[in-house]
Fold this protein.
Amino acid sequence: MELFLSGFSYRYECENLCRLFFPYSPVKVEAWDQPGPPSPGEGPWAWAVIEGGPGAYSYQVTVSDGERALTRQAGAPALEEYSMTDLLYNAFVELTGNHPAWGMLTGIHPVKLLRQYVEERGEEKGLAHFQGHCYVTPPKAELAHRVLRAQGPAVEALRENDFSLYVSIPFCPTRCAYCSFVSQDMEHAKKLMDPYFQLLLEEIEKVAQVTKDLGLSLVSVYIGGGTPTTLSAQQLSALCGKIRQVFDFSRCVEFTVEAGRPDTITQEKLLALREADISRISINPQSLSDQVLRNIGRRHTAQDVVEAFHLAQRLGFSNINADLIVGLPGDDLGSFQRTLDGVIQLGASNVTVHSLAIKRSARLNSPGGDLSAHSNAQEAAAMVDYSIQRLTQEGFEPYYLYRQTRMAGNLENTGWAKPGSICRYNIYTMDESNTVIACGAGGVSKVKDPYSGRLERIFNFKLPLEYINRFPEILQRKDGVTALYEQFRQRLR
């Protein structure tokens, strides 16, 4: 996909719109200084130009799928990004016949945008603007509105100096075919685990001291990955114990650990988590079809998922999340329905329905990768629609939602919870409601200015080996949290 721009410099949203309609075509952006649009090539392309001056700007686009070309134009009194993206979006819709369910939205936080509109215009007008201005379909606008309402109490409970803690365990028994996260399979990374773990404890201690000195209050803890239960029972106990030892838990409302893959779950590990007073765990099947599990490179069966659930419940865990993925290779509507019905029957209090997103580093995106289910937008949408209907019927409410690029059917990821079972960390990180400080490889701390709402990011090294070898720099970067808060407070003065 080639995108030619003339007369303006902003490109981000135009580029994302190209990806929205041609998700499997890399986008090459070029400045165009020739009169008129380029000649149609073999593949899709778009040309966007702005001419004129204040009070009389002319916007024109030409879009092509490689065979047909379509030109549209409009006038506007001002130079603004929305006028161009609106024209480009509608030209793509007309050319392709594709009306995306989320309209022209390309960002990952649609609920955050809806919240902004509601705060500016009131609930009714804000929702109408979200739907009309962004071309969001009524069902998706309703879903976002339900999420917004469900988030209200959790967001309103936050105080200015609250923060959440994320801890990364970037190891898995095997790497799933769809995975693009920073995680390493145990066969190749086992020797890194012990040194990584010891340094992680040191980083946690550093964060505890930094946040104490700043007067910040911990409100939620999330240990994710990867698969945290690749750690031994002793390591899990030490990790959770360290967090409880060095942080003040007087305002902390939840402590989540992703138990994750059932082939890493043992009674000994779950007992260690129970003794650490973990309030929420995840057991993530992704599918309850043995064939689909084999297709994505998992080494466990659906029965292993069932047994892991029953074991956790016998040991006293009542708040258990199950992650499912729409669009996996070999899956179809009937198989997905059986999976969803199965985790409901198992007694999951949280169900997170992900739409498969194929990133560049995923094995499914390599030559020979099976993208058939992912690319079947109609069936993916039917799976998501079934999840909305079925989970609503069973008393679940959607409480957080986000989107990614190259998602099956251009859909969404939605977290559902029974009353009283929401995960506040998920709300806070996706809504960008408070500061999140991350420890471990691949962790990204998002430090929020409580006065302007702006986020500043501090990155840890992605790979465990780099994290280990350059650990002094990790500790130095945590001092950056202190520096940012000092800047925020100086601006207030």
